[in-house]
Structure to design on (127 residues):
């Protein structure tokens, strides 16, 4: 009986939630799937865990789009749409961009070199 009483505080402690640590908030990037839809229209499917908001997922997709743009020999992209969803601990993004050699029309354009440099600085992987 004395043995069981000695274990009781341990059992209660095991039920208490653990205190979050810094590594609980470091995003884990699970990969990018790229699909050329038509000519200059490209879809990026990204997955990650530990995102704080949907914006983290959108940023990951933008980094992938910027690097892909450079790989294809272009300098600019225009954001068309991004859909973000969460299933358990996995966040997913489905983003579409157009890529082009010159600055496209529209307000959601990106300079691929600038965005890739920013992604590297923030530690967000690219394609």
């Amino acid at each position: 009986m004395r043995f069981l009483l000695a274990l009781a505080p341990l059992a209660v402690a095991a039920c208490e939630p653990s205190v979050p640590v810094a590594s609980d908030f470091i995003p884990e990037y699970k990969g990018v799937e790229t699909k050329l839809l038509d000519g200059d229209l490209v879809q990026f499917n990204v997955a990650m865990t530990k995102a704080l908001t949907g914006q983290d997922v959108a940023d990951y997709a933008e980094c992938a789009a910027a690097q892909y743009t450079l790989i294809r020999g272009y300098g600019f992209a225009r954001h068309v749409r991004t859909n973000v969803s969460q299933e358990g601990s996995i966040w997913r993004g489905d983003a579409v961009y157009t890529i082009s050699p010159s600055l496209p029309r529209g307000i959601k354009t990106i300079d691929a070199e600038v965005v890739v440099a920013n992604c590297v600085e923030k530690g967000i992987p690219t394609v």
Remarks:
- The mean pLDDT is 88.
- Residues 54-71 form the longest helix (18 residues).
- The radius of gyration is 21 Å.
